[in-house]
Amino acid sequence: MKGFMLVLSFSGDLLTSLTHAITNPLADELNILSLQGVESLYREILDVNERMRDEPAVLTMITLLISEGLLSKVLEKTRLYNQVEETHSITNTADLLSILSLRAHTTDTRIRTELGRAIHILSGGWTGHIQDLLTGWLEQALLRFPWIWPTVRKAGTIPLLMTSMEFTCRKLQNKASNLLSCLWATDVLCHLCQDLSYCSDVLDFGTHSLLYTANNARLIRMVQSDMEDPVGRLAQNIQFSIMECVKLITAPRPQVDSPHGTLRTPHSDWQVDVTWNWILQTCLAPSGTRGNT
Predict the structure, then answer these.
(1) Domain boundary among 90, 117, 144
(2) Domain that holds residue 293
(3) Cβ(189)–Cβ(134) under 8 Å?
(4) CB neighbour list of residue 269: distance below 8 Å, 6 or more residues apart
(5) pLDDT tens-digit series, residues 241-261
(6) C-alpha distances in angstroms, 89 versus 35, 96, 293?
(7) pTM for the full model?
């Protein structure tokens, strides 16, 4: 059956039919079923052994799958359906195609165009599962595809990430899954802040947003007395990742041209000594445990 499904997934006619079915479902009850049908078909690609997964024919099929617009259509419908019912079952297909897109031939102009569209689509969806989908994908894609950095900025992704982080860490009683998504967002933000032109978006959003989020993560960690608890570990990792962001933002940078935009010096509110003193006093650890930290 797996072999049959794999062969079936190579059909260009089937790809066209699936794309049309998702774009124009014949009835309301087919909305979710069409997405589930795509997932059941292409899930086999991830389940086959590693040798087959890297065969040129499979990679070519994945490239065709993305370049013909199925990914963007699935993302558009997923974002729409998520506004009515926010469940992981709705985002499963989008998550699958996003994972496959990381293995497509990105030298193909059509692939780059589709992935750029995907970032804009996901950045416009503010529900939790859509945010998780975006941050989980960006965490891998930013390392593999440096050419998507300008698109990430144009799509307004940094304010989205910071809003998500701040909202999640406001709750002292939190689930590990929520904090994991927050950590993904923090890691993505930290990666982008290696370029000073992206630091300006962080500063424009609000100079103290990162520090407040770090402090809230500290409070979450204090609620968890058992450091073996995943919630406490994740909260601490969020703190350290934010500290790395602050370090990157406040570090002196040469005034040179950047391929991603105009560089700027750190904001006057972010003086290095003041910022790091605040972190040391407030974020590192509650009284009595600073030595362990």
Answers:
(1) 144
(2) 156-293
(3) no
(4) 207, 208
(5) 998 988 888 877 665 544 544
(6) 10, 11, 40
(7) 0.77
